[in-house]
Design goal:
Length: 495
């Protein structure tokens, strides 16, 4: 292995950070380099992620000490099967969203803030990649804060009343979540004297015997803080406005990746760090099961009554994040596998659906669902892609949405909880209620003349949609690659 390849765990983050700070300079002096450098940075991190995935599959999990300072004195990254699963999801989907954004943002944003958008985008990606890799609690908190600030900024950058109001609401609630997580970290440090995940995990069983209340309070603080940031029902109130009013690339990354990375943080904390004895003392996973189940149903019901297509997709995300937390909280191998796999599957589906909605708005300016009748004849590619995403959200066989729902249902049966199978089936039915009429009306509805094609869809926006739609079908028919990676991650986490 080359000396440079040894540092890929750090470079996958540092590359994005450096380029994010270069963006404003390029925007001022060499505007024509902004987009190539941003795309090159994302592509490079994706290549690094692929290399790390191959290395983990060959050598197994390994650690990387920043600056050569080993834990507990230095900050450590751990590259394991779950980390590389998240890296591939984040950098792969993030790259496609950025390709789409290069053309869509010209229509949605003022010219003087375009360079700053790429700064925020790369900063947001760097924070999420860092969250996937970090093995240190305080470092995790730093990345959480960067992620929160960058997320608020890529919502408010559109500079209209709705975006600023939504970002302010998100900022306030996110600060509450961050505060809860920081207090939880303080409680853990108080009883263990460590911040490194590995050392904390080793110290917690004995600490739980001596200070059970401290650890139970820390668990509650972490669960509430992450629940707010991941939009777990009923802590989701910031999400519908933020995702629906933001620029379409922002909506795609927020719904497809940002809320998912907090589910990954939940997995790292509650499946890797806290001792199993703690779950006998506090019914945390039962509470999460109830919250996620109610969110799956209520998110779908709220989505049914929406008239704005982006707000409908936003409420759908409330239901979909419920699937992820449902799988985690089942604490069964198949259930956890379904939850982790749905992180990847939903990232493909929802980012594509938001970008398809953005393509419709870009070409026609129409957002109302009732005005989209007959649009399939005018935009057949976009609506075909939207249909594939809709079928996958419902869980139609031969789409990747079916695969993750199948494992969630099997996981619920493994632990003798058939009620949650009923919840999954009911949610799929509700998904069909609000997705399928859009598809049917688009291709077979009578055109009312409520929209006109004011622009043609650029190639930069069409290609990512086609790639994501193809990925949904391919991973639905041949799910083995990501399924094997997720399965190894589950075995590592639950053992």
């Amino acid at each position: 292995m080359t000396s440079l390849a040894v540092h890929f765990p750090a470079l996958v983050v540092v590359n994005l950070l450096i380029c994010s700070f270069v963006m404003p300079v390029l925007d001022r002096w060499k505007k024509n380099l902004v987009i190539p450098v941003a795309l090159g940075s994302m592509a490079l991190s994706f290549v690094f992620s692929i290399h790390l995935a191959v290395r983990v599959s060959v050598e197994g999990a390994f650690g990387y000490a920043m600056g050569g300072w080993v834990a507990p004195w230095g900050i450590e990254f751990v590259v394991d099967h779950f980390s590389v699963f998240m890296l591939l999801t984040l950098t792969g989907v993030g790259l496609l969203i950025l390709v789409y954004a290069t053309q869509d943002l010209v229509h949605e944003l003022k010219e003087d803030v375009l360079g700053w958008y790429y700064t925020l985008y790369l900063l947001l990606m760097a924070s999420m990649v860092g969250l996937a890799l970090t093995n240190d609690l305080f470092n995790l908190f730093v990345f959480v804060e960067i992620c929160a600030i960058a997320s608020c900024a890529i919502i408010s950058i559109k500079e209209n009343r709705e975006c600023i109001e939504a970002s302010l609401k998100y900022l306030i609630l996110s600060a509450v979540g961050s505060g809860g997580m920081l207090l939880g970290i303080a409680m853990i440090y108080m009883v263990t004297g460590h911040l490194n995940f590995t050392h904390v995990t080793e110290a917690l069983p004995q600490a739980f015997e001596l200070y059970p209340r401290n650890i139970m309070v820390a668990m509650a603080l972490f669960a509430a803080g992450i629940g707010v940031k991941a939009a777990l029902f009923p802590l989701h109130v910031w999400l519908p406005d933020a995702h629906s009013s933001a620029p379409s690339p922002s909506s795609a990354i927020l719904s497809g990746l940002v809320i998912k990375v907090y589910a990954a943080v939940f997995i790292k904390l509650f499946l890797k760090m806290f001792p199993w004895e703690a779950y006998e003392a506090i019914p945390l996973m039962t509470i999460v099961l109830i919250m996620s189940s109610v969110g799956i149903v209520m998110g779908s019901m709220f989505a049914i009554v929406q008239e704005d297509i982006k707000k409908m997709l936003a409420y759908s995300s409330v239901a979909q994040i419920g699937y992820v937390f449902l799988g985690i909280a089942l604490l069964s191998q198949n259930g956890t596998l379904g939850g982790i796999l749905h992180i990847f599957n939903h990232a493909l589906m929802k980012s594509m659906l938001f970008m398809a909605a953005g393509a419709i708005i870009y070409c026609t300016g129409v957002r109302r669902i009732s005005d989209l009748k007959g649009i399939g004849t005018k935009m057949p590619m976009v609506m075909s892609v939207f249909s594939i995403g809709a079928f996958s959200m419902v869980g139609i066989p031969m789409t990747n949405g079916f695969i993750s729902k199948w494992y969630l249902a099997i996981g619920a049966l493994d632990v003798d909880k058939p009620l949650y199978v009923a919840v999954i089936l009911l949610s799929s039915l509700l998904n069909g209620v609000y997705y399928l009429p859009i598809v049917v009306n688009a291709f077979f509805g009578e055109h009312k003349g409520n929209f006109q094609m004011s622009r043609k869809l650029p190639l930069q926006m069409a290609i990512p949609l086609i790639i994501l739609a193809s990925a949904i079908i391919i991973t639905g028919i041949f799910p083995r690659l990501m399924l094997d990676l997720a399965d190894k991650a589950v075995l590592f986490l639950l053992n």
